[in-house]
Design goal:
With about 180 residues, the protein is α/β, with parallel strands linked by helices. The protein is about 50% helix and about 15% strand. Helix 1 packs antiparallel against helix 3 and helix 8 runs antiparallel to helix 9. It comes from Rubritalea profundi. It holds the Pfam family DUF6036.
Amino acid sequence: MYSPRELFEEDLKTALKAAAKAYDRKRFVVVGSASILASHPDAPGYLRLSADIDMFPIRKLKTETFKPGDDLVGQASQFENEHDFYVERVGDWTMLSQPDGWLERCVKFEVEEITGYCLDPLDLAYNKNEAGRKKDIYFVAGMINEAIITRDELEGFIKKCCPHPELLPTVEKHFALVCEELDGI
């Protein structure tokens, strides 16, 4: 198992090609911090730091299909040994509370005949903000600090687009933590 490292645009290409082969699919949604590689491949290294690239195929996999694919590109695989990162196959469940229209806002990243639909920076920030883990708060603050998004854009997006009213207090609380982090920079 490897520690997080800076990921590059070439790593996203490698991951998509390997996932396409492992899962026999051509279209994937890329979530998590590595999705920034499509829109901001030159983002500072601390925003490209990860031990994995989170993705899921757009067309669902059968249970008997995803396990062998995970063995090929997932954690502790030969792929991880060769590339110092792995593909973390997540599910579409990761997007259940994402604001409407997220897929249409994705940044298309194509390599050969494979397409990665990478979260738009604002959707990525929302997703990380909603998760609210310490690393996510730091990541969102970093996105704002690096002018990838603005504080006002994210605040407006949260207020206007949060799809579940019962989540809004938690999302706003996490945003306040992002602001505290920014004010401390």
